[in-house]
Design brief:
The chain is α/β, with parallel strands linked by helices. It is about 40% helix and about 20% strand. β19 and β20 form a beta hairpin.
Length: about 550
């Protein structure tokens, strides 16, 4: 640990960051376990943890949707003056893949070498300017989000040597698998319920240190966020009616139905969500395919798609109702289009017969109940067996679609149908603008932090409600009741077997949330970079002031 001066703190944060970047902890690789063990080993040598070994834990656990074990490191430093009041800092140590670096891939985790090599590479003008300025640190994970983790470790290291500095306990929960399905925070919430009871902790606030640009893309402003956006992945599975292409109007093309589904859902302004002046982007398709399709002069009869859906105040059931309405609208538009086409070519001499096929619309839960009615046996056990037998390497969303297909094979009716439901992941929205005692304290501390940043450092901290890039804060507490969450479990295929969220443990971590992070640009790109001055010189002081206010 460097001296406690601003310069000493800045150098310490930078050293920790370079050390963390140097460990290639790409999501889903052994690097996640390696960096977790490295952090645990590093902290285990601190005097505080040698004397309080139960306050440092290396956590690992499995989830059905994650192939490898998921790792986390928990470190708690208790204040000299006994208290249960605890501030929990969280940060993820996994990073996205580096294939985008091309020939510079071997240098992606070595900032000094990468920056030297980038001097001879053609870069976007803004990135080139930032590189030449010397004010940015380039490298995978520099911005997203090993800088935030370095800041947290620096803070808790100082506190471990001066436990009388604050009258509040400070804990850090460093987690993996954020960039995939947020598995780290799901096991983290489960662990925190146990740790809070065992170590007698009352979590007053959960602080994330994701970078501002990740929360508001393209921002040039230092920011704090009082919550985080929610995310759903609504899916549609279309079962049409396949016929020879020459008998087109006697069948129902899954491809045509799907095209109208995309027309009515994607970029639909009626499907955005808004709260207190903040508005989400509309849904966008993340996956689309014709299923089990080899070349054949036959109408495609199976297709699947799913959409990214950001939300702030809506409930999952409201979104499912919207998707059901969109499916009905797509059916209406498809049939209208076919009728118009058939009339037009009939007027030109086409004489083959047509048909007006009915197209049912079901939610996944409704499909399960339709099949259950006629199924001879335990349907849940049957689906569970199918789910468990699917390969570990298969994407969890593909597993969900396969389970929908398994149900449709058991459905007695062979008429066309659109099934809608949800696929993983599900991230609930969270905001801390309520009237609970903890929220009021947090709101006051955030306001004082804004004033302090401007008065002391000349920095205007912009405050927003929702971190718009999705974050692990979604798994802190719950803004939904059990009844409001039930449609999630009922409409995600394979719930409990291929994907699960520990709602009870998440609700137990009932604390307001805030994100106070560094500045940077181009997360997930080869030009990912961290702004140095604010991150190393100013933000360590702001975090310490914020802790003091709580």
């Amino acid at each position: 640990m460097k001296c406690n001066s601003a310069a000493g703190r800045a150098e310490n944060v930078k050293e920790i960051l370079i050390e963390l970047i140097g460990i290639p902890s790409v999501t889903g690789t052994d690097g996640e376990a390696r960096i977790a063990r490295h952090i645990h080993e590093k902290l285990s040598h601190w005097r505080y943890f040698r004397e309080n070994s139960s306050h440092l834990r290396l956590v690992s656990s499995k989830l059905p949707d994650v192939k490898n074990d998921i790792y986390a490191v928990f470190a708690l430093v208790k204040a000299a003056r006994p208290t249960t009041k605890t501030i929990l800092f969280i940060a993820h140590f996994d990073v996205v893949d580096v294939s985008i670096y091309g020939s510079l891939k071997p240098l992606a985790f070595d900032p000094p070498a990468l920056e030297r090599a980038m001097a001879d590479v053609e870069l976007p003008p803004k990135a080139k300017k930032d590189l030449e300025s010397g004010q940015y640190l380039f490298g995978r994970g520099a911005m997203d989000m090993k800088a935030g983790l370095a800041l947290e470790l620096d803070l808790i290291e100082e506190f471990s040597n001066q436990t009388n500095r604050y009258d509040v306990n400070i804990a850090v929960l460093a987690i993996g698998d954020e960039e995939n399905n947020n598995g780290g925070m799901r096991i983290g919430a489960r662990f925190m319920k146990q740790a809070a009871k065992e170590l007698r902790l009352d979590v007053a606030c959960v602080v994330n240190t994701e970078p501002s640009d990740a929360g508001k893309s393209g921002t040039e402003q230092q920011m704090i966020f009082m919550g985080t956006i929610g995310k759903l992945l609504p899916f549609f599975y279309v079962r049409g009616a396949g016929v020879h292409a020459g008998s087109y109007f006697q069948g129902m093309s899954a491809s045509l139905l799907m095209s109208f589904l995309h027309t009515v859902v994607e970029a639909n302004p009626d499907l955005v969500d808004a709260d207190k002046g903040e508005v989400t982007v509309p849904p966008l398709a993340l996956g689309l395919e014709l299923r089990h399709r080899e070349y054949s002069v036959t109408l495609p009869d199976k297709a699947a798609t799913f959409f990214n859906y950001f939300f702030l105040k809506k409930t999952p059931s409201v979104v499912l109702d919207e998707m059901t309405a969109m499916a009905h609208d797509a059916v209406h538009r498809t049939k209208k289009h076919l009728a118009r086409s058939y009339a037009a070519i009939s007027a030109r001499g086409y004489t083959r017969p047509g048909t007006d096929l009915m197209v049912a619309v079901l939610t996944f839960r409704e499909l399960v109940e339709v099949v259950r009615h006629d199924f001879a046996g335990d349907l849940d056990e049957h689906l569970s067996t199918i789910a468990i037998e699917l390969a570990d390497t298969m994407d969890v969303r593909e597993k969900g679609i396969i389970l929908v297909e398994a149900l449709l094979e058991l459905r007695k009716a062979e008429t066309p149908v659109i099934v809608t439901g949800l696929l993983p992941p599900f991230l609930p929205p969270r905001e801390s603008l309520g009237s609970s005692a903890k929220e009021i304290v947090l709101q006051a501390a955030a306001e004082k932090l804004q004033n302090y940043a401007e008065d002391t450092h000349g920095v205007q901290l912009e405050k927003a409600i929702y971190f718009a890039g999705i974050s692990d804060l979604s798994y802190v507490g719950s803004g939904f009741s059990k009844d409001e969450l039930r449609p999630v479990a009922e409409n995600i295929p394979g719930w409990g077997d291929i994907y699960v969220i520990p709602f009870e443990e998440i609700a137990a971590l009932d604390a307001p949330v805030i994100n106070i992070g560094p500045m940077g640009r181009d997360a997930h790109k080869m030009t990912e970079r961290l702004e140095k001055d604010y991150t190393f010189r100013i933000l360590p002081d702001l975090l310490r002031y914020f802790v003091k206010q709580l």
